[in-house]
Write a structure and sequence with these properties.
Elements lengths: L18 H49 L5 H34 L37
């Protein structure tokens, strides 16, 4: 290859890559960007899905109560309570899971540098003799 001419007679720069290589780079960068986005936004997705599912469960309960108005109220209330009770527990667990994820995702990552070996300590110099202390000056104000 000289000056961009290939052995087969076509011209291509040395920096050119085939379509497959370009597509692989785009796919890799796109998928990495998607997973980075998903990791950052997963707690919000969990909350939105939980709220949507809560809407659907409450909607079902209202429709169920409305369509079974001829039956005894205590039976209908027991059925609705049997559905909404466990859903409330599941909802609390999903919110707690989302908050734990939010803390984990937003927690700063601290990378500690490798420990450096300590330099050997220099031998201590002998201490100089202390000078005698000067007498403290006392000032008396007799006004």
């Amino acid at each position: 290859m000289t000056n961009g001419w290939q052995e087969d007679g076509s011209w291509r720069r040395a920096s050119d890559q085939g379509a497959a290589a370009v597509a692989a780079k785009v796919t890799k960068s796109t998928s990495r960007a998607f997973w980075d986005w998903a990791e950052r936004h997963f707690p919000q997705v969990v909350i939105v899905v939980t709220l949507y599912m809560t809407f659907r469960v409450v909607e079902w309960a209202m429709n169920f109560g409305d369509s079974h108005y001829t039956e005894q109220g205590l039976h209908i209330a027991a059925i609705i309570g049997a559905v909404l009770g466990p859903w409330g527990i599941m909802q609390a667990a999903m919110f707690a899971f989302s908050m734990d994820l939010r803390k984990a995702v937003s927690a700063p990552v601290i990378v500690m540098p490798p420990a450096q070996p300590a330099a050997p300590a220099a031998p201590a110099a002998p201490a100089a003799p202390a000078a005698p202390a000067a007498p403290a000056a006392t000032q008396i104000d007799n006004r």
